[in-house]
Amino acid sequence: MIIGIDVGNTAIKIAVQGESDVVVRRVSDHATMDTILKTLWNYSQAETAEVRIASVNRATANELITQTRAVAGDAVRFRQITWDDLPIAIATEHPERVGIDRLVGALGASYDYQRPLVVVDAGTTVTVDLVDTGAVYRGGAIVPGLEMQTAALAAGTDALPQINWQGACQSQDLLSPQNIPALDTVAAIRLGILSSVVGGIQRLVELYGNPQCVVVTGGDGDCVAAGLRSSANPDFDVELHPHLVCRTLANLDSAALSKTQASSTGLRQR
Ligand SMILES: Nc1ncnc2c1ncn2[C@@H]1O[C@H](COP(=O)(O)OP(=O)(O)O)[C@@H](O)[C@H]1O
Ligand SMILES: CC(C)(COP(=O)(O)O)[C@@H](O)C(=O)NCCC(=O)O
Ligand SMILES: [K+]
Predict the structure, then answer these.
(1) Domain count, the chain
(2) For the CA of 126, the nearest ligand
(3) How far is the centre of ligand 1, averaged over its atoms, from the C-alpha of 109 (Å)?
(4) Could you tell me if 246 and 2 are in contact, meaning their C-beta atoms sit under 8 angstroms apart?
(5) Same domain, 117 and 240
(6) Is the Cβ atom of 218 under 6 angstroms away from ligand 1?
(7) The model's pTM
(8) Residue 50 and residue 32: Cα distance in Å, rounded?
(9) For K(+), which residues are the binding ones (predicted)?
């Protein structure tokens, strides 16, 4: 039983090898750990579960490992995935400093889509990374996420409300001409933030040399993908790939991960 867990700064995502549905839990939701423990415990009843964790939030990852070990002992074997476990060439100065979610997303996208490509991961932040024709990770850019930007507007002003992005893009096409310019405060905030994120991505794709394929993932990926698709004849394909990071982790062939021995503490032995 192989499980992939993507520990982000807003949510934890859990994927099981060979299964399409993914468990998503907000880090801030106090019941999160219970749900995750139950999920891991259920999966490890039948056989020892190998849990591959890609984390960009040390406190959350440590709490998850500690609490699971307290309940499941060695039935759950954690492996914290780092840059040197991944079969992808990394062209940045310090690969160990690049967010592991960005590297796993780049690896997964390089398997499934035409290169060169850009990976957009829209969550707490929006990362926009380039993978070249030779499947080399070339680095990228980091932008505040949709929720972070609305929270900043609400925190910095008297009159602007915090707004929820979930479901916002299914109900309406925020960037369609009839909604522009926005006629009320909430619409103006949504239009301003989404158009600036989408516009920034379009500019970055240009600066990256106009790759033909843009793979979009992350909890706000549906909004961002819809925005990219609604812009006038985008000269690249937009591929929405929900939960790219945890699903890549869960479905990565064991032989593809380097041969370091994982221990049940989740710490790596070299
Ligand atoms: N069940 C959910 N829990 C948390 N965030 C969700 C959920 N469903 C959709 N979202 C949206 O996903 C965003 C978090 O995206 P995600 O990619 O998980 O972030 P990160 O990887 O940075 O933790 C939130 O800002 C929210 O808008
Ligand atoms: C940029 C990130 C915060 C994105 O994390 P997320 O939005 O998924 O919570 C994460 O990839 C990270 O902590 N990166 C380390 C710095 C870097 O990638 O250069
Ligand atoms: K992410």
Answers:
(1) 2
(2) 2
(3) 20
(4) no
(5) yes
(6) yes
(7) 0.93
(8) 20
(9) 121
